[in-house]
């Protein structure tokens, strides 16, 4: 299975994950949903590694911790946004799709990468898309919009370290490390917000764990098989799929300003990914060795 197919599979899993988080929100707090999702992910990662004889060793622990810490912050912020009914799941997906652009802006300060005029142009277009999506609901959901954007930044930084880890650890090892760190953090938070879920609630939360874990495993394998600049373009498929799944399963409606905003954000992100793939914006993406 090539890297692009892995990314398509990942995008589909993440689309269903986001919808399941919203469906679980009436049954449990966002911290409970996140804790169940990450514990389930850890169990599946261990089971897969044992079944396939995959090593869970990580040769760059600092990068692993950075990936897990940033990823955990991104995850808890995402679940806060997805659990809030004041904003559509599709809108949250689009806002978090700004992650590559926002990371490109902070790259000179955190990753020693330069950002040129093309990055700033894409950022401006993306910001216009954010305004189109957020403006009609900013009075009632302004803080949630900011939470979604903060999730985009932290998750993006986590993905940077995930790409660094690709040649030095298996997908199962990277996902397991992240799952354990997230499970401990979210499990501790859920103590103060615990509501005992119904059987339906448990089943939906279990679905978030299954889709989240397999989505992460597929994403990690994709980044190990294809240069980051090329595979990043396919990452925007998850945004489109989330909107479609949210319309089908949640009855969400897409207005013209949402479609316009989504087009600006996704379009600018794809333009930036293509530029980085060809080395036109910032440092050229390096190809990671193929996974064993």
Major sheet, described briefly? none
N-to-C SSE series?
Answer: HHHHHHHHHHHH
Assign an overall shape. globular
Distance between the termini: 13 Å
Cα-atom radius of gyration: 18 Å
**Helix coverage percent:** over 70%
Number of extended strands: 0
The residue ranges in which pLDDT falls below 50 over 5 or more consecutive positions are 280-292
Mean pLDDT: 78
Return the domain count: 1
Beta-strand portion reads under 5%
What is the count of helical runs? Answer: 12
| Alpha-beta classification | mainly alpha
SSE topology:
Layout: H1 3-24, H2 30-52, H3 61-82, H4 89-96, H5 99-110, H6 117-134, H7 138-165, H8 171-190, H9 199-225, H10 228-234, H11 237-250, H12 256-277
């Amino acid at each position: 299975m090539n890297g692009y197919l892995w990314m398509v599979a990942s995008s589909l899993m993440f689309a269903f994950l986001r919808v399941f988080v919203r469906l679980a929100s009436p049954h449990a707090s966002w911290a409970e949903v996140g804790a169940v999702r990450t514990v389930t992910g850890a169990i599946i990662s261990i089971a897969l590694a044992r079944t396939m004889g995959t090593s869970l060793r990580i040769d760059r622990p600092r990068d692993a911790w950075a990936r897990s810490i940033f990823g955990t912050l991104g995850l808890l912020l995402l679940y806060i946004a997805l659990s809030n009914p004041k904003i559509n799941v599709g809108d949250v997906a689009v806002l978090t799709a700004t992650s590559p652009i926002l990371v490109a802006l902070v790259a000179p300060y955190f990753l020693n990468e330069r950002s040129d005029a093309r990055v700033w142009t894409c950022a401006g277009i993306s910001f216009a898309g954010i305004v189109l999506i957020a403006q009609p609901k900013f009075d009632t959901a302004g803080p949630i919009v900011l939470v979604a954007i903060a999730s985009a930044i932290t998750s993006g930084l986590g993905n940077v370290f995930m790409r660094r880890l690709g040649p030095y650890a298996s997908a199962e090892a990277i996902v397991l490390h992240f799952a354990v760190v997230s499970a401990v953090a979210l499990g501790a938070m859920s103590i103060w917000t615990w509501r005992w879920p119904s059987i339906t609630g448990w089943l939906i939360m279990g679905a978030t764990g299954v889709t989240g874990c397999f989505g992460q495993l597929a994403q990690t394998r994709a980044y190990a098989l294809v240069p980051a600049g090329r595979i990043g373009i396919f990452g925007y498929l998850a945004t489109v799929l989330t909107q479609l799944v949210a319309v089908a399963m949640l009855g969400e409606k897409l207005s013209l300003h949402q479609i316009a905003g989504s087009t600006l954000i996704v379009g600018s992100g794809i333009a930036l990914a293509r530029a980085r793939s060809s080395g036109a914006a910032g440092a050229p993406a390096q190809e990671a060795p193929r996974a064993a």
